[in-house]
C-alpha cells in the first residue's frame, strides 16, 4: 500500500527538509520552502519482490547508426552551441529570462527543421496554439509543417508522442507548466517539475526523439525550480541578453555532446531572431573612438574570435575604501591586475575608484583579457587615449610578465578583417599569425605596456618596447 509521506522542499534550489523553516540553509533564500506530499517510495527496498526484473539486450560500442546521429537545424548560431546539431535521444534545457526570446528561437528552429521534412512537435503549456500560430505567421513561418498543441499533462503528451512516426524534435515550453499524475504536488513545484522532466527524459531515451525543455530563470540567473533538472539533462543552454539592447547570446552551460565555451549571437528584430554572423562588428559598432579608458580586446569565444571593447574608469575616491566595480569580467582577476600594476609597475591605485565594463553586455571569462584591461585602466588613469587601430590581448602573470595565449593567429586575422592595424600582445613565438598583415607590438612585461602608454600620453612619439616582424 502506498504510504503518503510529506517533506518540505525549497522551491528555489530543491533542498529537502524534515520540517518547515523560513530560510533555506542551502541557497539562503527566504520563504521558498513548501510542503510537498508524495506517494512514491512507498514500499521499502527490502520488501520489494525480487527476481522480477526484465532481461534486456546489451549492445556494443561499435553499433551502426543508420540515421544521422545529429539533427542540424541550419541556424548556424544554434548549431554551433549544441555542438553541431541536436543529438538523437538527447534532452536539452533552455533557460532564460521571461521575454528574452526562448519561444521565438524554438519556433524558428522547429520551422527550419520541419522544412527539412523532419517531424517536429511544439507543445506550449503557456500559450494557446492560436497564439503560437499567430507568432509563427508574423515571423513568416506559418507554412512550415510544425505540429502544435497547447497541453500541460505529461501523460497525455507522452501518449500523443507515442502515436505515429516518432518525432525527431519535441519542444516542451515550459517545464514549469507541466504536471504528471504520478506525483501529488501542485504544478510548478520542484517535485512536479522533477517528475515531469524524468518522464520526458525517459521518453527521449527510449524513442530517440530530441526533447528541448524550456526553463524559467529566477532573478539571480539560476534556472528556477529545476536546478535538479540540470543534472538530469544532456545539455543546458542559457539565452541571455541585455534588457536595453536587441542582441541575444545563446551560451552552452553544460553539454555532454560538445564544448561549452561556444556562443551563438542573435539579434531580435521585427522578423524574429536573426543570426549575427560577425559579432565583433556588432560589439564594436558603438565605439567611443579616441576617448581615454577604452581598449579593444581580441578575444576568443570557443573556436571563434570575438573583438570587444573594454571600458575602464579610474577616478580619485571620496571614500575611505576605494570602490572596485566590474561588469562582464571576473572581479578577482581585476584585483590581481591592480595588484600587479601596483607591485611591479609603480602604478598607485589605492586612492582611486576603479570601474570596469565590458561593452555590449558580454561576459568574458578568458585570462587573455588581462592585458586589454590593464591598458584600459592605465589609459583612464593617465588620460591618454589608446590608438584606435590597436587590439590588445595577453595573460598577465603575478610576476608582471605577459604570457602567451592560445589562438594568436585567429585573433590577429579577425582584427585585420575589422580594419585594425596593430596588436599589442605577448611576444610571438615561431608560429605566430604573421600572415595576417597586422603589426605586432610584442610586450614582455606589463611594465613596458605602462611605460608605452604613459609616454604616448606625454605627447611623445609612441615607441613600442619590442617590435618583432
Ligand atoms: P518570447 O519568445 O515570447 O520570449 P520567452 O519565450 O523567452 O518568454 O519573446 C517575446 C519578446 O520578443 C517580446 O518582448 C517581443 C519580442 N519579439 C520581437 O521583438 N520580434 C519578434 O519577431 C518576436 C516574435 C518577438
Ligand atoms: Mg515563452
TrEMBL record:
ATP binds at residues 96-103. InterPro entries: AAA+_ATPase, DNA_repair_RadA, P-loop_NTPase, RecA_ATP-bd, Ribosomal_Su5_D2-typ_SF, Ribsml_uS5_D2-typ_fold_subgr, Rubredoxin_2. Residues 353-469 are annotated as: Lon-protease-like. NCBIfam families: sms. Transmembrane segments: none annotated. Belongs to the RecA family. RadA subfamily. It comes from the Bacteria. The keyword Repeat does not apply. Residues 67-217 form the RecA family profile domain. HAMAP family: RadA_bact. Plays a role in repairing double-strand DNA breaks, probably involving stabilizing or processing branched DNA or blocked replication forks. DNA-dependent ATPase involved in processing of recombination intermediates, plays a role in repairing DNA breaks. Stimulates the branch migration of RecA-mediated strand transfer reactions, allowing the 3' invading strand to extend heteroduplex DNA faster. Binds ssDNA in the presence of ADP but not other nucleotides, has ATPase activity that is stimulated by ssDNA and various branched DNA structures, but inhibited by SSB. Does not have RecA's homology-searching function. PANTHER family: DNA REPAIR PROTEIN RADA (PTHR32472), DNA REPAIR PROTEIN RADA-LIKE PROTEIN (PTHR32472:SF10). Keywords: ATP-binding, DNA damage, DNA repair, DNA-binding, Hydrolase, Metal-binding, Nucleotide-binding, Stress response, Zinc, Zinc-finger. The keyword NAD does not apply. A motif (RadA KNRFG motif) lies at residues 254-258. It comes from Labrys miyagiensis. The gene is radA. The middle region has homology to RecA with ATPase motifs including the RadA KNRFG motif, while the C-terminus is homologous to Lon protease. This is DNA repair protein RadA.
Amino acid at each position: 500500500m502506498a504510504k503518503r509521506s510529506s517533506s518540505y522542499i525549497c522551491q528555489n534550489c530543491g533542498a529537502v527538509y524534515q520540517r518547515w523553516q523560513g530560510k533555506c540553509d542551502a541557497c539562503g533564500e527566504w520563504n521558498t520552502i513548501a510542503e510537498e506530499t508524495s506517494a512514491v517510495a512507498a514500499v521499502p527496498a527490502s520488501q520489494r519482490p525480487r527476481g522480477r526484473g526484465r532481461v534486456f539486450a546489451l549492445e556494443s560500442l561499435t553499433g551502426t547508426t543508420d540515421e544521422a546521429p545529429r539533427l542540424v537545424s541550419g541556424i548556424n548560431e544554434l548549431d554551433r552551441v549544441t555542438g553541431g546539431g541536436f543529438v538523437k535521444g538527447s534532452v536539452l534545457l533552455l533557460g532564460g529570462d521571461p521575454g528574452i526570446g526562448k519561444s521565438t528561437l524554438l519556433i524558428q528552429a522547429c520551422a527550419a527543421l520541419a522544412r527539412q521534412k523532419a517531424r517536429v512537435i511544439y507543445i506550449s503549456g503557456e500559450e494557446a496554439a492560436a497564439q503560437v500560430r499567430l507568432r509563427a505567421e508574423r515571423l513568416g513561418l506559418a507554412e512550415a509543417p510544425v505540429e502544435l498543441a497547447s497541453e500541460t499533462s505529461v501523460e497525455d503528451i507522452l501518449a500523443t508522442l507515442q502515436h505515429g512516426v516518432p518525432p525527431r524534435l519535441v519542444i516542451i515550453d515550459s517545464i514549469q507548466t507541466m504536471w504528471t499524475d504520478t506525483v501529488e504536488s501542485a504544478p510548478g513545484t520542484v517535485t512536479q517539475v522533477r517528475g515531469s522532466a524524468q518522464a520526458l527524459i525517459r521518453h527521449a531515451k527510449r524513442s530517440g526523439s530530441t526533447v528541448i525543455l524550456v526553463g524559467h530563470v529566477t532573478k539571480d540567473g539560476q534556472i528556477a525550480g529545476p536546478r535538479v533538472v540540470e543534472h538530469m539533462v544532456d545539455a543546458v543552454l542559457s539565452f541571455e541578453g541585455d534588457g536595453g539592447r536587441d542582441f541575444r547570446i545563446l551560451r552552452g552551460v553544460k553539454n555532454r555532446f560538445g564544448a561549452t565555451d561556444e556562443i551563438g549571437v542573435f539579434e531580435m528584430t521585427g522578423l524574429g531572431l536573426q543570426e549575427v554572423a560577425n559579432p565583433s562588428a556588432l560589439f564594436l559598432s558603438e565605439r567611443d573612438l579616441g576617448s581615454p579608458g577604452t581598449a579593444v580586446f581580441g578575444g576568443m569565444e570557443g573556436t571563434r574570435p570575438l573583438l570587444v571593447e573594454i571600458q575602464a574608469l579610474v577616478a580619485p575616491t571620496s571614500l575611505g575604501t576605494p570602490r572596485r566595480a566590474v561588469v562582464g569580467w571576473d572581479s578577482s582577476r581585476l584585483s590581481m591586475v591592480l595588484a600587479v600594476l601596483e607591485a611591479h609597475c609603480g602604478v598607485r591605485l589605492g586612492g582611486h575608484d576603479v570601474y570596469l565594463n565590458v561593452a555590449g553586455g558580454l561576459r568574458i571569462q578568458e585570462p587573455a583579457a588581462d592585458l586589454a584591461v590593464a591598458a584600459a585602466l592605465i589609459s583612464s588613469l593617465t588620460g591618454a587615449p589608446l590608438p584606435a587601430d590597436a587590439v590588445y590581448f595577453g595573460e598577465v602573470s603575478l610576476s608582471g610578465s605577459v604570457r602567451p595565449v592560445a589562438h594568436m593567429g585567429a585573433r590577429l586575422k579577425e582584427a585585420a578583417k575589422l580594419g585594425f592595424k596593430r596588436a599589442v600582445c605577448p611576444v610571438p613565438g615561431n608560429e605566430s599569425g604573421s600572415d595576417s598583415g597586422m603589426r605586432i607590438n610584442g610586450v614582455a612585461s606589463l611594465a613596458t605596456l605602462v611605460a608605452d602608454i604613459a609616454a604616448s600620453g606625454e605627447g611623445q612619439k609612441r615607441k613600442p618596447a619590442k617590435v618583432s616582424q
